[in-house]
Amino acid sequence: MPIASNLKAIQISLPKEVTLVAVSKTKPNTDILEAYHAGQRIFGENKAQELALKAEELPKDISWHMIGHLQTNKVKFIAPFTSLIHAVDSIKLLKEINKRAVQNNRTIDCLLQVHIASENTKFGFGINDVESTLHSAKQFENIKIVGLMGMATFTDDIEQVTQEFKRLKALFERVKNEQITTLSMGMSGDYQLAIEQGSTMIRVGSAIFGHRN
After folding, report:
1. For residue 31, how many other CB atoms are within 10 A of its CB?
2. CATH code (residue 28)
3. In this predicted model, what pLDDT tens digit does every residue of 21-65 receive, in sequence order?
4. Which domain holds residue 63?
5. For the chain, how many structural domains are there in total?
6. Largest interatomic CA distance in the chain
7. What backbone torsions phi and psi does residue 131 show, to the nearest 5 degrees?
């Protein structure tokens, strides 16, 4: 599979202020190493145990992002090393991440997931709850909320997706400060649109690694 050439094509097309997270969930270590040798250092996984296993087996200078829905009972597997948790969708989860961060004597960077899609299946805080959540999160001293994350509706309606990204960007503009600087939106199918709307971090899997097995 032309992982290296896929990766290079995406890297060349990205504005310099946009960070690429290569979504390696379900992919074997050989695929991840191919991307690694092509210069990629940030990888995203959506299952805590799979992430912990890969982190153990693969080069230590990889920055691992937890991108999927995270259950509180799984935080302990990734708390010792994860660089960024993308999908924080409840105060209960923040509390658990903080607890595990304290145990591991570290501060864990997190993004608040905001529900912007029309589907009910997506997780996240309501747009109107984000500011109060940021205020509540100040009590957790071993967590650093560095930005927001959102997933658009899975649809071919470009206008709808654009509007959802616009709403998230407007919220981001309201809350951003020295610490809150990351806006994670856009995946393989819509990352160009997300970048146009102001995304600073994209999560790309199939466009790099090919479709999931």
Report:
1. 17
2. 3.20.20.10
3. 999 999 999 999 999 999 999 999 999 999 999 999 999 999 999
4. 3-209
5. 1
6. 47
7. -65, -40
CB-CB contact of 157 with 189 (8 Å): no
Residue 137 CA to residue 171 CA, distance in Å, equals 17
Name, in order, each residue with C-beta under 8 angstroms of 136's C-beta and a sequence gap of 6 or more: 91, 94
Q: Would you mind telling me the total number of residues written for the chain in this entry?
A: 213
The helices-and-strands tally (H runs, E runs) of the chain is: 9, 8
Q: What are phi and psi of 160, to 5 degrees?
A: -65, -45
Closest by Cα among 139, 152, 141 to 193: 152
Classify 147 in phi/psi space as left (phi over 0), alpha (psi -120 to 50) or beta: left
In terms of DSSP bridges, do strands 19-23 and 84-88 run parallel, antiparallel, or are they unpaired?
Answer: unpaired
Q: Tens of pLDDT along 88-139?
A: 999 999 999 999 999 999 999 999 999 998 877 668 999 999 999 999 999 9
pLDDT of residue 163: 96
In whole angstroms, how far apart are CA 128 and each of 5, 115, 204, 209?
42, 10, 28, 36
The span from the CA of 129 to the CA of 35, in Å, is: 38
Tokens of 39: 């210069």
Q: What angle do CA 8, 190, 11 make, to 5 degrees?
A: 15
3-state percent breakdown (helix, strand, coil) of the chain, nearest 5: 40, 20, 40
